[in-house]
Amino acid sequence: MGLYLRGSVWWMSFVDPNTGKQKRRSTETTDAKRAKRIFDKTKGQIAEGKWFEKLPGEDHTFQEMMERYMEEHSRPKKASSERDEASLKRLSPFFGSRLMAEITPQQINQYKNERRLAGASFSCINRELALMKHAFNLAWKEWEWVIDNPVLRVSMEKEPPSRDRWLTREEQKELLSVSPKWLRELILFAVETGLRRGEQLNLKWKNIDLNNKVLTVLGTKTGEKRSIPLTRQALEVLAVRKSLDEQKLQSDLVFTYPGAQMVNIYTLRTAFVTALEKVKMEDLHWHDLRHTFASRLAQAGVDPYTIQRLMGHKSFTTTQRYAHHYVESLRRGISALDMQRPEAV
């Protein structure tokens, strides 16, 4: 233990009784006598077992943590920022002004109960807790604002089975027949490539190799690059878009709203809902077009590993939701056994 000068400020050196590691802390004073009093107080706290490392989280509020999280991690990922903003609007009134170090599993459980009473779905509550958990993990492991993550000690809600909705060929034909040309191209390309909405709307010509009939995309959720071979129908859509682009638009984006404008997600949503209403089609979301791509692959007997790579799933667990579609693939496996079996004597 000891005091020493660093520049004109006095610093103290001592051993952390909790970790056994050497600590160096500024006394934040240039006065030698005041620095010694601060040092003596610290030594007394250590001797009495009352000294604890003070972390920034003791002074930071939940809202300050979330502002940093949104700025550094959520908003740069445009595909998920909209969802995170919606979750934060629910979390902030309850946790906003609380100091991070004061947030406990009991308080988080109370929040869950209040959200249930308000009629929130289990999936919504889980998304909100997942956002909070991720932010606390960063504050704990990277920013060193807190010493643990209280959300880890709170159980998530048990959600009902995932939706299993995809377009039949007949539904697709009906939907395309009532859609304007720009929307029709987007729908068809979505079911032929399985791109996420953000990936498709931000797709640029430089990401497409027409000679080798493949597109390359950086996953908006996983951040990983993947290549998708293009089907005949996908190539036909691109041929129309390329011809139009060369004639009039000269846009870097593959898909644009009439007038070379980038397709706004709200414009897309309105046009899609309008088309659904025209054919009286219910319970279909834009994301279900991506599910249609994966379901058709599975129904055609494509193996799960290939589907995982084409979809850009980080976890194989996500791909397993399509397992019940693999009937034909399983049937071929059984047929292979029958072919190997010797004739009965």
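That was protein one. Protein two is written in the same sequence-then-structure order:
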Amino acid sequence: MQESAFDRVAREAVADLLPSAQARAVDLGFERIESVAVRADPTALAVVIRNVVDNALRHTPEGGRVDVHMYAEGTNAVLRVEDTGPGISEPDLARVFEPFYRGRHNEGGGTGLGLSIVGRIVQSLSGSVLLENIRAPNGSGLRVAITIPLAQPRGNNQRCRRNR
């Protein structure tokens, strides 16, 4: 499988979604972005990013915020998306990766396939997806954290040479 710049794909996908965010006065942007490469088809990565960010945008109220984080942690690339929407009810959290499942409160529209597709792609890349509700004193939201193994784990392939 080819090596792809996950951060570059993320930048492009977020840029494509900016007009939709601006139309609803949602603050969409990167809180943190590092250069990370993974072994994956860039089109598959774009599908993952667009589905997750688009879901966040659809469920974030006008004037809300969607923050995207892209960084390396250990041997993984991490894509984290946090929104200021209502989150997902606890009973629905266990089912949102099922095809066509749209949850009990599906005001955001959609077909119920987005997270199912995300789950399948990430699983095929030996990665994982974690969804958790954000409960904070100043608001709520949803955090989606996707981890995919780095193409070359940092620190493992670099050798130091000393001049003697």
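The first strand starts at residue 3 and ends at 5. Keep this in mind for the problem set.
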